[in-house]
Amino acid sequence: MRISLKWLVLVFIALLAYAPWASKASDSILSDYASTIVGQAVEVHCIYMTENEGYTQPMSDGSFEYDIWLKKGVCRNIKNLLLHKPIYNYGAQSWALTTIIHESYHIKLLSTDESLVECTAMRNIWGYIVKLDYTPRDNKRLYETAWIGHSYLPEEYTKGCKPPSGLLIETGLEVIYEA
Ligand SMILES: [Zn+2]
Predict the structure, then answer these.
(1) Residues linked to residue 46 through DSSP beta bridges, in sequence order
(2) Per-residue pLDDT band at 62 (split at 50, 70, 90)
(3) For the segment 70-116, what is each residue's pLDDT rounded down to a tens digit?
(4) Please, which residues have CB less than 5 A from ligand 1, an ion?
(5) What is the per-residue pLDDT across 24-33, written as a single tens digit (0 to 9) for each?
């Protein structure tokens, strides 16, 4: 029996895609990025998720595993910013950026306090946006939509956070959450 090379390659690719370890592999670009936020080596894993946009795992001693799990679409939206591709969805991409920064701050602050983590992330978000090196106009829109996205979160996350005054009223933009 003759098995074509093409067929073997297809089977190999299929095995790679469905191997249990495939989904555990970390994303090097996003891992590097989160590591700079945390100040220690962190691994970011992009997985299929329906419940969350992202999470990190607290351990019984109150510390965190140095792993961040993000929804695949969230990963894509951050990576396109980090790779400096044209922005295609301010709301979804600033939301994604906020998500990786939020999860990184869980580890950085060793905290499960959602409002502490979220407020710290949002207080610092402008600095992370500017580092992406887009135009001032893009920066402003990313910043505005990041705050709009934030305002949709449950109170557990938003209590005590201080959005810049006037910002949300003036924009009239809507945040589109991408699956
Ligand atoms: Zn959180």
Answers:
(1) 70
(2) confident
(3) 999 999 999 999 999 999 999 999 999 999 999 999 999 999 999 99
(4) 114
(5) 689 999 999 9
Determine the average pLDDT of the residues in 173-178.
Answer: 46
Q: Please, what is the angle between helix 114-131 and helix 90-108, to 10°?
A: 120
Identify the domain containing residue 59 by its residue range. Answer: 24-171
Q: Please tell me the distance between residue 135's alpha carbon and the centre of ligand 1 in angstroms.
A: 29
Domain presence at residue 11 = no
Angle at 155 between CA 150 and CA 160, to 5 degrees: 80
In a domain, 121, yes or no: yes
Q: What is the pLDDT of residues 130-164, one digit of tens each?
A: 999 999 999 999 999 999 999 999 999 999 998 87
Find the 43 Cα to ligand 1 centroid distance in Å.
17
Does residue 16 lie within any of the structural domains?
A: no
Q: Find the 116 Cα to ligand 1 centroid distance in Å.
A: 9
In a domain, 45, yes or no: yes
For the chain, the domain total comes to 1
